[in-house]
Design brief:
The structure holds two protein chains of two kinds. In chain A, the strands form two sheets. Chain A has a seven-stranded mixed β-sheet with strand order 7-6-8-9-10-11-12, covered by helices on one side. Chain A is 46% helix and 20% strand. Chain A is an alpha/beta fold. Chain B has helices at residues 3-38, 45-63, 70-97, 106-129, 155-163, 170-192, 194-204, 206-211, 216-242, 251-264, 269-287, 289-296, 299-302, 309-323, and strands spanning 135-136, 244-245. The mean pLDDT of chain B is 90. The longest helix of chain B is centred in the first third of the chain and has 36 residues, at 3-38. Chain B is built from 14 helices and two strands; from the N terminus they run ααααβαααααβααααα. Chain B is globular, with a radius of gyration of 21 Å. Chain B has a two-stranded antiparallel ribbon with strand order 1-2. The chains are: A alpha/beta, B mainly alpha. Chain A binds chain B through residues 170, 194-203, 205-210, 212-213, 226, 229-230, 233-234, 237-239, 254, 257-258, 260-261, and chain B through 1, 5, 9, 12-13, 16-17, 19-20, 134, 136, 138, 144, 146, 167, 169, 238, 242-246, 249, 252-253, 283-288, 290-291, 305-307, 309-310.
């Protein structure tokens, strides 16, 4: 290790000596490129690659040869941490775009914090990703605790619900989310006529009977699409057309498939906007299609945005460092303190712990099996 | 809330429980048949049942574009599921239980759990190859409608039923009819035919039956065939009722159906049915306890919601077994010396 670091610094010294020579500057992506979630992970990598392609020339002019290295975390915390150590060892990597899973982001950012490698996450929503207050961990999507209040506001303001029936799937995710919704609903004076948990995956007849008796204006189900899909199907078969809302656990095209004819009047909040809901994403989508022969999805746009935050951060640090290649520490603080513009999801700046100061939650609506954007809800983290 | 709204609600809850109970009952028959003959708990039965559900899904999927009558499609699905699940069950017995028949009782029990896990992943693999996980049933058009709904000749009856709260779907009625029919056939088969007599003889005493010229291996295979076929039927009914299954869907209903068999008195055919229906209704009643708690103003009852419906059913099982260890309809074994 020592000898490579030494030879690198020699190389860097040589590079500074001759005007034409370039210093290699790398950014990394850390996302699942194999396994069940590789589809989403690859989208993140490809989105970041597009940003790198865009900035290559600009870096070239400043004497930096910009490259992207993709690391595969297999959506696994242990693998992600091992990869993070590899990233820390490669001194030419200045910052990381990643990860997809909060469970991977938490130990990986911990592994990178001592070597001051900044991470900008395009996808992690768990509160604890930034609540630990690490100097290197940032995210450009909304936090989990924003979903509950946003869902409750949508129920009260947009759906004009006066009585809401709450269900959760008895997991940490579903129960926590529903608790937040309940709190926010009560604060708005909305009546909660039922609140229960169920692990049932196929038979919802007793709950459906209760909903029929209570006649709520809306149902909120904190859970995952495969359970909620079956529930909605049975609810609609019983002739109940009440709107059903939930969190990003419902964000799957499978939801409509499972609910079948019942896939109507459904709403859910999500952090990954569908690509056509983002302003200025049209060129990006076309570019993505041309480069990767694949359709861009939400996470590609957020991978692109996260990479742009990283690249603009490096450029700002470069300038602040007297037009010399910045150190990791300089990049880290430039990202935390900077204002980033020209992104698909709007401008980005971070608070003291790395949460985006003003993020957006998207409310999707399913009608007749078709998904479309219903509302954009601006959300702010508690700390500014 | 007054009686006029509460009564239909209660009827609706009990009816829902009965429909559910018929699904449990017919799965429970698969457990009870095998147990009755071999004193073996065939834990792979829940996967035999899911296999039936998968076969049903495939038949409905393949037949969806054809203009064939919906009931004919259902019949084909049922027959195919019976055939494949029955054959699978016979193969399981031949490969996993027969070689261990004289081993201690614990050994085939463990094998059964092993077979169950293997089958889960095989099913997932088969469907996964085609990019599917949650299999969503596409039923023939009319099946998702109401029983005695708009456009049928019995609207008046339908309206009467609805005023007392019995708002049945056509597929619920089909489910009950198919369950009752299979029960009737099974009952006839076991009690009135030579095959049934032979199976009962093997169940009573395998060695003596053998001395009387009954090929006990063939009878055991026949039992597994019948049990598997029932599993196939229940799989299709389950898929039809709830709309979706995946390779791991069998565990929950399997455990409950097994409980139903024990509750009714394992080894007893009417017991399995009674156990299934009881558990279905109890589950649904426990699921709505909080409504009654709210009405009666009892805060402790209000806390009992749908999340307790499983555990409630098991508490009932424990209570019944404490007071009647053989189950509701089970007979105690009198050992003759």
């Amino acid at each position: 290790m020592k000898s490579t670091a030494l030879s690198l610094s020699v190389l860097a010294a040589l590079a500074l000596g001759s005007a034409s020579a370039q210093t290699t500057v790398k950014i990394a992506t850390l996302s699942p490129l194999s396994g069940g979630q590789s589809d989403l992970g690859t989208q993140i990598r490809n989105g970041a690659q597009l940003a790198v392609n865009e900035y290559k020339a600009q870096f070239q002019k400043l004497g930096m040869n910009l490259q992207l290295t993709a690391y595969d975390d297999q959506a696994d915390p242990a693998t992600g941490t091992a990869q993070a150590r590899k990233i820390a060892a490669d001194r030419s990597i200045l910052a990381v775009v990643g990860t997809l899973n909060s469970g991977v982001a938490i130990p990986s950012s911990q592994a990178l914090v001592s070597s001051r490698v900044a991470m900008v996450s395009p996808a992690n929503t768990a509160n604890n990703v930034t609540d630990r207050g690490l100097s290197n961990m940032n995210r450009i999507v909304a936090r989990d605790d924003a979903q509950g209040p946003a869902g409750a506001n949508f129920l009260a303001d947009n759906l004009k619900a006066k009585k809401v029936y709450l269900i959760n799937d008895k997991t940490a995710y579903g129960e926590g989310l529903t608790k937040e919704v309940e709190k926010a609903l009560k604060a708005k004076g909305v009546q909660v006529v039922g609140n229960e948990g169920t692990e049932e995956k196929s038979d919802f007849s007793s709950i459906v009977a209760k909903i029929r008796l209570q006649r709520p204006d809306a149902v909120y189900f904190g859970g995952i699409y495969n359970q909620i899909g079956v529930f909605i199907k049975q609810l609609r078969e019983a002739g109940i057309t009440t709107p059903v809302m939930g969190g990003d656990g419902m964000d799957s095209s499978e939801l409509a498939t499972i609910a079948g004819k019942g896939a109507t009047n459904i709403y859910f909040t999500t952090v990954a906007a569908p690509i056509d809901a983002l302003p200025a994403a049209k060129t990006f989508a076309a570019n993505f299609q041309k480069t990767f022969k694949d359709q861009a999805q939400g996470f590609a746009a957020f991978g692109y945005d996260a990479a742009k935050v990283v690249l603009q951060g490096i450029l700002a640090a470069h300038k602040a460092n007297g037009n010399k290649v910045p150190s990791r520490t300089q990049v880290e603080s430039a990202i935390r303190k900077g204002n980033f513009t020209g992104l698909l999801s709007g401008n980005v700046s971070f608070n003291s712990v790395g949460d985006r100061k003003s993020a957006t939650l998207y409310v999707m609506n399913v009608q007749g099996g078709k998904y479309r954007l219903s509302a954009r809800l601006p959300v702010r983290p508690a700390r500014q | 809330m007054d009686l006029a709204t509460l009564l239909p609600f209660l009827v609706n809850v009990i009816a829902g429980g009965l429909v559910l109970g018929f699904v449990y009952a017919i799965i429970a028959l698969g457990y009870t048949m095998v147990y009755g003959v071999l004193q073996l708990i065939n834990f792979a039965h829940s996967e035999v049942f899911v296999t039936g559900a998968v076969v049903g899904f495939e038949v409905f999927r393949v037949l969806t574009p054809s203009p064939m009558n919906g009931y004919l499609k259902l019949l084909i699905a049922l027959l195919a599921a019976m055939l494949i699940s029955g054959t699978l069950n016979v193969l399981i017995e031949r490969l996993a239980y027969r070689p261990l028949r004289n081993a201690p009782k614990l050994v085939p029990l463990i094998t059964a759990i092993g077979v169950s896990l293997i089958l889960q992943d095989v099913l997932r693999l088969i469907e996964g190859f085609q990019g599917r996980f949650d299999l969503t049933y596409t039923l023939p058009e009319g099946f998702s409608g109401k029983f005695c709904g708009e456009g049928s000749s019995c609207v008046a009856l339908g309206n009467t039923l609805r005023t007392i709260g019995l708002d049945l779907q056509l597929k619920d009625v089909i489910l009950i009819a198919v369950s009752l029919l299979s029960l009737g056939v099974l009952n006839y088969l076991v009690n009135r035919t030579r095959l049934g007599k032979a199976i009962r003889a093997v169940a009573q005493d395998r060695v003596t039956a053998g001395l009387m010229g009954i090929d006990s291996n063939r009878m055991i295979s026949a039992t597994f065939l019948i049990g598997g076929a029932l599993g196939g039927i229940s799989g299709v009914l389950f898929g039809m009722k709830f709309g979706t299954v995946n390779a791991y869907s069998g565990f929950d209903p399997g455990i409950i159906a097994f409980t139903a068999a024990v509750l009714g008195g394992i080894g007893s055919i009417p017991g399995a049915v009674l156990g299934g229906l009881t558990l279905g209704v109890i589950q649904n009643l426990i699921g709505v306890t909080n409504i009654f708690g709210g009405l009666l103003g009892i805060a402790n009852l209000e806390a009992i919601d749908a999340s307790y419906q499983r555990i409630g059913a098991f508490i009932v099982l424990v209570l019944i077994l404490i007071f009647k260890p053989t189950g509701l309809l089970g007979k105690s074994n009198v050992e003759k010396v």
